Amino acid sequence: MLLTVTSEEARNHESLDVAIVGAGAAGVGVGAVLADLGLDSYAILERGEVGASFQQWPEEMRLITPSFPSNSFGCRDLNAVTTDTSPAFAFDREHPTGRECAEYLQGVVDFYDLPVRIGVEVESVQRHDDGFILYTSNGVIQSRFVIWAAGQFGQPNDDPFPGANHCDHNSRLESWSAFADECVEDPIVVVGGYESGIDAALALADLGHEVLVVDEDGPWQFQGPDPSEVLSPYTSQRLQDAFEHDAPIALEDGIRVERVDVEEGTFDVIGTDGASFRTRNRPVLATGFESGIGIVDEWRGNGRLRDESPSRSGGSRVVLSALQPPVADRE
Ligand SMILES: Cc1cc2nc3c(=O)[nH]c(=O)nc-3n(C[C@H](O)[C@H](O)[C@H](O)COP(=O)(O)OP(=O)(O)OC[C@H]3O[C@@H](n4cnc5c(N)ncnc54)[C@H](O)[C@@H]3O)c2cc1C
Question: Which residues line ligand 1 (CB under 6 A)?
Fold first, then answer.
């Protein structure tokens, strides 16, 4: 149980104009903007390392959005977090890995000399008269503004049905090759057929395993302009290529997994309409991330952002909460 402090007591603690929580793509990008604006009383509080979520991606996973310089449009790179940097330039890669993305973010931090404090977890946030009080693993900070850039990677949707604890959520796997090493010859069942699920299937098939992807909607069969609803061209193209090369991937749509039973090392993935798949390999959950924004969820509606949609991919989300009108520059 955390002890809370009064507004009066909070004034005895460190005081900032802006506290950014999280040094991922959003936090580092916003930090660079504040640096450009000339703010000096701000900090980026990060519980792990810069780009911690990217660092935890399975080793083989890559950004689906291409890094491609398009200077003439003033947008250097779709994956850039500032207009004057580019992962494409940094790595000479169109689809950087998570490790490369983290390295790029660290490069931005170094370039802008951003005030990142690593190893500082924000445990709770409380409002007070002059803004907010942040209770962190490193003490209390009061801040006029809080930018919540803590992402969703830390909140996997890993309990979607009974027996999910017998499965592995894709965000928790170090690498597909290490996972595959533990598997026997049975098919590997992947629950969820959106970006992460298809990415898992491609990686595991590439490692010589038979894969069955089960999804209620079957996003692989749709086309559309919203990448949060259909597969990205990068993933669709890889899937098509895989089928052309007879990759051992089966896709089953129209089935909602209702539970996973386990008996003597055998997993039964049970779906709607009596569907059932038996395997001796731990099923993979590619079921996305929780739609909430963690410990500041209660501020939703008080900040500027309203987004009630569930997230399947774990996309960026920045919440700006303030009790006072924004001040862009101190000078
Ligand atoms: C498999 C996969 C593929 C993806 N591919 C793409 C893609 O191709 N293109 C794209 O644009 N996006 C992609 N995304 C989404 C992309 O990862 C996110 O858009 C981006 O990482 C989100 O950035 P963020 O800064 O909001 O969150 P994160 O990168 O998750 O950063 C949040 C940071 O906050 C820290 N943190 C969390 N809670 C606290 C706390 N309480 N106190 C202190 N620190 C905290 C975390 O340690 C982390 O470093 C993909 C996601 C996944 C999972």
Answer: 21-27, 45-48, 52-53, 61, 63-65, 121-122, 149-151, 153-154, 195-196, 313-317
CA distance 78 to 329: 27
| The total number of residues written for the chain in this structure | 331
Strands 257-263 vs 266-271: parallel, antiparallel or unpaired: antiparallel
Domain count, the chain: 2
Which residues, in sequence order, are bridge partners of residue 266?
Answer: 263
Whether the model clears a pTM of 0.85, i.e. scores above it, the answer is yes
* Closest atom, ligand 1, to C-alpha of 61: 1
Atom of ligand 1 nearest to the CA of 52: 49
What is the Cα gyration radius of the chain?
A: 22
Domain containing residue 87: CATH number: 3.50.50.60
Whether 246 and 131 map to the same domain: the answer is no
Residues 150 and 228 in one domain: no
Q: Is 119 left (phi over 0), alpha (psi -120 to 50) or beta?
A: left
Domain that holds residue 191: 164-285
Which residues make beta-bridge pairs with 188?
A: 211
pLDDT in tens, the chain (331 residues): 456 777 777 777 899 999 999 999 999 999 999 999 999 999 999 999 999 999 999 999 999 999 887 666 666 788 999 988 888 888 888 999 999 999 999 999 999 999 999 999 999 999 888 899 999 999 999 999 999 999 999 899 999 999 999 999 999 999 999 999 999 999 999 999 999 999 999 999 999 999 999 999 999 999 888 877 899 999 999 999 999 999 999 999 999 999 999 999 999 999 998 899 999 999 999 999 987 788 888 776 554 444 444 445 444 444 555 544 444 443 3
User: Hey, which residues does 285 pair with through a beta bridge?
Assistant: 169, 191
